[in-house]
Amino acid sequence: MFDFLNDNNESAITILKRDHEHIRALLDAYEAARELREKRVILKKIIEELKIHAFIEEEIFYKAVYEVVKEDLINEADEEHHVTKILIAELANMMVSQEGFDAKVEVLADNIRHHIREEETKLLPHVSRLDIDLISLGKEMLAKKTDLKIHGMPVFAEETMMKRVGRHSEECEVGSTATASKRKGAKIKRRRKNKN
I need a labelling partner for 154 at 20 to 30 A (CA). Which of 81, 136, 144, 186 fits? Predict the structure, then answer.
């Protein structure tokens, strides 16, 4: 249950790869699930794991390697995290049965799998060749993961942003499922009108 029970001499890279493997397995389980209740339970686990993983990557791992890694690798990873957090915040404001929900989860899964592939083929191999104490970094990451699981996650800026957009949904529906549905409905009406 808690990572502090694991070997305390794991490298930061080993910890990140294990997280990646766990998240991929959860995504696969969600895609295989057929019942809404089961999907809801799995998605809750996915979101919790993604939030914790993103936090320790951004606040500990990326900060530790930023000065010695190609800047574009970290910047791209940060942007992928940003997109992931927006998708998570949008999903938190939707019902599992709502139109477009599975599609949004699919976009999230695609984004996550791309991010993992990029990290494991570019960033992590590069970091493994550098003179960085990956064991100490791993210990710090595990301690923070444990702390986050016990005390909870801080709210991401993207969550706050999406809550504001949700409160003003009548005025600002940019990127919302409602807007996409309205556009889709308008296109269908135009096609029917043009056929007549």
Answer: 136
